[in-house]
From TrEMBL:
GO cellular component term, pick one: extracellular region
EC number of this enzyme: 3.4.16.-
Family: Belongs to the peptidase S10 family.
Keyword line: Carboxypeptidase, Disulfide bond, Glycoprotein, Hydrolase, Protease, Secreted, Signal
Protein name, as recorded: Carboxypeptidase
Species of provenance: Salix dunnii
Signal peptide stretch: 1-21
GO annotation terms (biological process): proteolysis
Protein's cellular compartments: Secreted
Enzyme class, spelled out: hydrolase
One MF annotation (Gene Ontology) recorded for this entry: serine-type carboxypeptidase activity
InterPro entries: AB_hydrolase_fold, Peptidase_S10, Ser_caboxypep_his_AS, Ser_caboxypep_ser_AS
Lineage: Eukaryota, Viridiplantae, Streptophyta, Embryophyta, Tracheophyta
Amino acid sequence: MDHSLLSILSLVSLAIYSCTCSSLEDQQRDRITSLPGQPVNVEFNQYSGYVTANQQAGRALFYWLVEAPTSRSPESRPLVLWLNGGPGCSSVAYGAAEEIGPFRIRPDGKTLYFNPYAWNKSGVGFSYSNTSSDLYTTGDQRTAEDAYTFLVNWFERFPQYKYRDFYIAGESYAGHYVPQLSEIVYQKNKGIKNPVINFKGFLVGNAVTDDYHDYVGTFEYWWTHGLISDSTYQTLRVTCDFESSTHPSVECFKALRLAELEQGNIDSYSIFTQPCNNTAALRHNLRGHYFLKDSTTPWMSRAYDPCTERYSKVYFNHPEVQKALHANVTGIPYPWKTCSDIVGDYWADSPLSMLPIYKELIAAGLRIWVYRFAYSRRDTLCALSPLIALGPGASYVSGDTDAVVPVTATRYSIDALKLPTIINWHPWKQCNTQKSRIPGGKEEQRALVGQHAPCRCCLWENAQAPSMPPPPSKEVIKSSSCFLFSVLNFATLLLSTLADHDRLVEQSRDRIIKLPGQPPNVSFSQFSGYITVDPLEGRALFYWLIEAPKTVKLYKPLVLWLIGGPGCSSVAYGASEEVGPFRVRPDGKTLYLNPNTWSKVANLLFLDSPAGVGFSYSNTSSDIYTVGDRRTAGDAYTFLINWLERYPQYNHRPFYIAGESYAGHYIPELSQIIVRRNNGVKNPVINFTGFLLGNPLMDDYHDNIGTYEGNDECVVMYTKRYMNRPEVQKALHANITRIPHPWVTCSSIVRRNWSDSPKSMLPIFKELIAAGIRIWVFSKKKKKRKEDGSINALQLETSISWHAWYDDHQQVGGWSQVYKGLIYVTVKGAGHEVPLTQPRLALMLFTQFLKNEPMPALQSS
């Protein structure tokens, strides 16, 4: 069935008004002729007005009915009642104006535009009571009873909807409203063969379901997504009563406050969406049952434009809009608001759990779906179709960017029902698309891409040799006694000049004139080629050097980038997908500039290691079947020594190593060799200063607790096409031995035959921290990372506690904790390849690392 052909009824919360006109007269009176600012060609009917819920107290509820388009036979479509949560929030404000309704409000607060994913293709607000005490005594029970009375009276006004298939939907605290109203409807329908309210089932999203599981899951979500520190998580678990959240203890309240500070200025309803207008004015604090003293907005839904709520406030306060909607007929003496503070603050009753109602309704054969908004309203609209088409039972669809009623809370509540599984956890795909994008939560995606190994690729250009430092100053010969010394010095200088000439020849030979398909106006030099690491076995490693642009200050540091696998190419990933200056276009032939390349602040050296990876090779075929951590580290050190002989201008230059994934082994192991070789050397050639690790594998025990998703297969495909072109390999001075197979991003042979892999890098970390080496570890923020457990195992003293860090736009960029000897940083919204998924924030992190300054805190205005 076409799910985009539903009639939607938005019910808001409390109010009064009554009328005894005939149903047709009532409908005609409530019909919306046209809304101010609405677009042209509206092909559906709309109605709005009041239905009395309690004649004696004078309570009436405001509704807005949006029918299916006239071209889609609205008379045969089901009816869906939408409820929003809070408690105390308007279904008109959120469900209709921000989420599933036919219109969106433009930022001017005056005009509307069509919502392409409105559910009708397929509110509290203006409601009122003449009894003022009603606002201070409302709660779950009265809300459900009034909603049922509203339905009965509304069907009298719109009898054409009697016996029509009827569903109830909603989100957040409607996780209480919807099951409670459903229970009343079910109980009232018992024994009636053909009930007027032909109730079929309900759909709840991001639903408040069970106090205990909601809070266990919420605190766990905050912690596992890096929003709060380990210590705050433990404090919340100890001080907060999970059985009832109505009256938190002083200690729990303090812990919640600290958690709010640690989360920083984010939109907790969509943690990867920037808050409105760079301020926390519309940011909802810690909400739900634990209301903080200055928290003005409880649980409700947010759309992708974080400022939509602001537009709604402007639009619905226009007198002409209220007149068109037949709203505010009693002239409420205060501005219309999306949520009522009074109703929310004085909520009288809130049962601890909805699970008993779930069990009753599941046993009755009602259709129940629990969903979570994932990436787009289109995805949720797509998910709605099976609700209408399938039979009774309970189903669960999940996303994971809501930190208010998070996926972990929902899953714990559903698990508590102890229902038998009919279809195991699986990915679902978008409807009406030929692409196989998975719109569900991360766990669904992981089932698809988790089997792939990470991989990468890269490119660059210029026409000059690397910048040479100025020659040392010459001493003046002051006396003839210096003559012999001068002759010897001259001879040394002559030999040195000859050696420099040889190096210049080698550098010139490795210089990349121009890469096929590269963009114009490239202002940096690049070199690539081979460095022999074992002449006897014939092992040579391929490198690619991208120097910082000539426009920046000379003598930028040198950074060696390594990628993991084991068996994956740094050229494929670090250079071509993440931190290099170029990206490969989908045609696999042309390149474009990466505006967030790390070469803006450093000279980047990408190394394909070990032999057998990328363009690196060995003339001894058995090498590929006997490689492991130890030989890889040894060969990398030999490479560095020999490479610096070819590029002596980088001798004594500040040197760093960076990388990710299994480079969490490569980098500490190589660093250990360098530190030990440099021990006792006053001015070492390799001026090693520190290393930077992204999403690293550090310790088998803690790594196995965490998981990560794979790479972007599309980007890998573009890189494979490009790197296998003969003209590209020629420009890169690569594949000189004519490897008898296509170039691949990762070598499955190397990976399968990896011979040694120590269980833990933590002993090396401890040694390097004691040696004063600068160490930063960064990771994605989407889920609690394995790094957290590994870093905690080091038992380092904390210098700066867990806190939010901010980018140059004063938006939360992630979270960080500074230890004595190590800095840990998470990047908001990043994936396994942080520089690929959050390039601007990754460049900012790298710049701070080079400056040896912690991530910036929020600047006071």
